[in-house]
């Protein structure tokens, strides 16, 4: 895999310098697990049982869109007393 895809370093092209990061609004599995206080295995279990947040698998790396995770999290809200 080309590591440059994940780089935050500026690059130069014919137009000029760019700091575009394709994955700026995404987290890796370990980053998301740490952010929500869970283990990466929990995220894997949620994925297998089809109840976890949507994810992207790109070149063997699992990524989670922050916006999609927030939407999924909001959908988990339950009224008091609901099961």
Task: Describe the fold and architecture.
- The model is unreliable at 1-8 (pLDDT under 50).
- The protein is elongated and about 60 Å long.
- The protein has helices spanning 29-36, 40-48, 66-75; strands at 11-12, 17-18, 26-28, 56-58, 61-65.
- The chain has a domain at 24-75: Arc Repressor Mutant, subunit A (Orthogonal Bundle).
- The chain has 3 helices and 5 strands; from the N terminus they run βββααββα.
- Strand 1 and strand 2 form a beta hairpin.
CATH architecture of the domain at 24-75, please? Orthogonal Bundle
Write down the overall mean pLDDT: 84
Please identify which CATH superfamily of the domain at 24-75 we are dealing with: Winged helix-like DNA-binding domain superfamily/Winged helix DNA-binding domain
Give the amount of beta strand, in percent: 15-25%
Strand order of the largest sheet: 3-5-4
Low-confidence stretches: 1-8
Largest sheet: 3 strands, antiparallel
Output the radius of gyration.
16 Å
> Termini separation (Å)?
44 Å
State the CATH class of the domain at 24-75. Answer: Mainly Alpha
- CATH fold call of the domain at 24-75: Arc Repressor Mutant, subunit A
Helices and strands, in N-to-C order?
EEEHHEEH
Shape: elongated
The count of DSSP E runs of length 2 or more, i.e. the number of strands, is 5
Class per helix and strand makeup: alpha+beta
**Number of helical segments?**
3
Helix content estimate: 25-40%
């Amino acid at each position: 895999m080309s590591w440059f895809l994940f780089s935050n370093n500026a690059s130069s092209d014919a137009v000029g310098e760019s700091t575009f990061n394709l994955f700026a609004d995404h987290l890796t599995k370990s980053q998301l697990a740490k952010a929500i206080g869970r283990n990466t295995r929990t995220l894997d279990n949620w994925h297998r049982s089809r109840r976890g947040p949507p994810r992207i698998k790109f070149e063997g790396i699992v990524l989670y869109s922050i916006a999609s995770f927030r939407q999924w999290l909001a959908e988990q809200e339950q009224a008091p007393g609901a099961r």
